[in-house]
Design goal:
Structural class: mainly alpha
Radius of gyration: 23 Å
Oligomer: single chain
Number of helices: 17
Helix content: 25-40%
Shape: globular
Number of strands: 6
Distance between the termini: 53 Å
Largest sheet: 2 strands, antiparallel
Order of helices and strands: HHHEEHHHHHHEEHHHHHHEEHH
Number of domains: 3
Length: 420
């Protein structure tokens, strides 16, 4: 009797958590059920940590995990698969072995290879037990009949058989191995960052074929119209100026004393990291702060340079009312440009984008106000945007190459083609 009550309590907790996310569950708590609800709850949490909803739930269609959301890649668009337990269009007919092979090996039940838009090169480091816990949770989701043709890529990228070559170059199968020389906290953070969280999918530079440049792990990469910043402990361009508490707070709230999350990172915070335990967020911070940076010396543009003079005037006129003359902004409300490494990132993609189009930061349960910055692209010419961006990248101790009007023009044209 006690065991049945324990399982019923665990089931109610899992159901309440899923309902809070707006996810309908099947009725699984019935007399004689052999479901292990502790595993289901573990799978629910791991589904959050792996941010499965980011791709597999289309916010415009409403059915959780029913797929169909376009996933942008450098080679074209793929549609995320339906991973509800629907027998015909989802994964309801898959065995556990087939599900594990898809997640950790990039292989479909029919033997075809997945594209790395599904981050199996990172999920391969997850344990089989964790993957099957995710499967156990997905089995409780109401099935949605949604037949998705994932492969929308143009020729020749739509030829899946060519993926054997990509896998041979870039896919290294194998579960995460804990480092006995490191603490349990460090190892937990490494597992979350490198495996479940697949942070390298955005934050690691890629080759022309889309594989990770492993020697530059976590040094930042331009993706989906943004620059996913350097998240090593680099003082100038990474997280060197952030404390462990700053990192954990950013992941939990979407804001900290320095920055606010927007764009794809805002989605990640809303859907994933804000829902993780404080212990796991602290572990992630511990691991990232231990990642050595590779700071490259840069020469600042001279204060008297004509672009700096023009940029200073534009900054004073358009930016200083919010970010203040010294660049420090307002903690948790307006980003601190003086302390931000993002403004001097290797590629100025995000800085130019935000000046041109503005940005909306994420709102979370712990920080329900998501401040926004207005767009200035309609007011400023390409040369003016280049000047003020150059000024920001070379003030308050920052140093970065000057931008040109041509760079801004190309960014403006690229952004005009985007609907996000």
């Amino acid at each position: 009797m006690r065991e049945r009550l324990r399982k019923r309590g665990a089931a109610l907790a899992a159901g309440a958590a899923a309902m809070a996310l707006g996810i309908p569950l099947l009725a699984v708590d019935h007399p004689g059920s052999r479901q292990d609800f502790a595993i289901i709850e573990r799978g629910r949490y791991l589904t959050l940590a792996a941010d499965c909803a980011a791709c597999h739930t289309d916010p415009h269609q409403g059915a959780a995990f029913a797929g169909g959301r376009p996933v942008e890649t450098p080679f074209g668009t793929v549609l995320a698969a339906n991973i509800t337990p629907d027998q015909d269009t989802g994964i309801g007919g898959w065995t556990d072995e087939q599900f594990d092979a898809a997640v950790r090996q990039g292989r479909l039940p029919d033997g075809k290879r997945l594209y790395p838009a599904m981050p199996y090169p990172y999920y391969t480091k997850m344990t089989r037990e964790d993957v099957l816990a995710i499967r156990a949770y997905l089995n409780t989701i109401a099935p949605a009949h949604n037949d998705v043709d994932s492969n929308q890529l143009p020729f020749p990228f739509n030829v899946r058989s060519a993926m054997w070559f990509w896998d041979a170059l870039y896919f290294n199968s194998g579960a995460f191995n804990a480092d006995p020389a490191q603490s349990a906290v460090w190892n937990r953070g490494a597992y979350l960052v490198e495996a479940a969280g697949h942070c390298g999918a955005c934050h690691t530079p890629k080759t022309f074929l889309g594989g990770d440049q492993n020697r530059r792990q976590f040094e930042g990469y331009s993706i989906q119209g943004w620059f996913a910043p350097n998240i090593t402990n680099d003082d100038a361009r990474g997280l060197g100026r952030w404390s462990n508490a700053d990192i954990a707070e950013f992941l939990k709230k979407g804001h900290n004393r320095i920055a606010g999350a927007s764009g794809p990172m805002g989605e990640e915070v809303a859907d994933s990291s804000s829902r993780l335990t404080q212990e796991d967020l602290n572990a992630i911070a511990t691991y990232l702060k231990a990642r050595p940076g590779q700071t490259l010396a840069a020469r600042a543009v001279a204060v008297g340079d004509p672009m700096m003079v023009a940029g200073a005037a534009i900054y004073q006129d358009r930016c200083s009312a919010c970010h203040s003359g010294n660049g420090h902004g307002v903690p948790y409300l307006i980003p601190d440009l003086a302390a931000s490494s993002a403004v001097v990132a290797r590629e100025p993609t995000t800085l130019i984008r935000v000046v041109l189009r503005g940005a909306q930061t994420v709102a979370t349960q712990d920080e329900p106000t998501g401040p926004a910055m207005p767009a200035f692209g309609w007011q400023l010419s390409d040369a003016q945007v280049a000047a003020v961006a150059t000024y920001i990248r070379n003030s308050w101790g920052h140093a970065g190459p000057a931008l040109s009007a041509g760079e801004v023009r190309r960014a403006r044209e690229s952004l005009a083609a985007r609907n996000d």
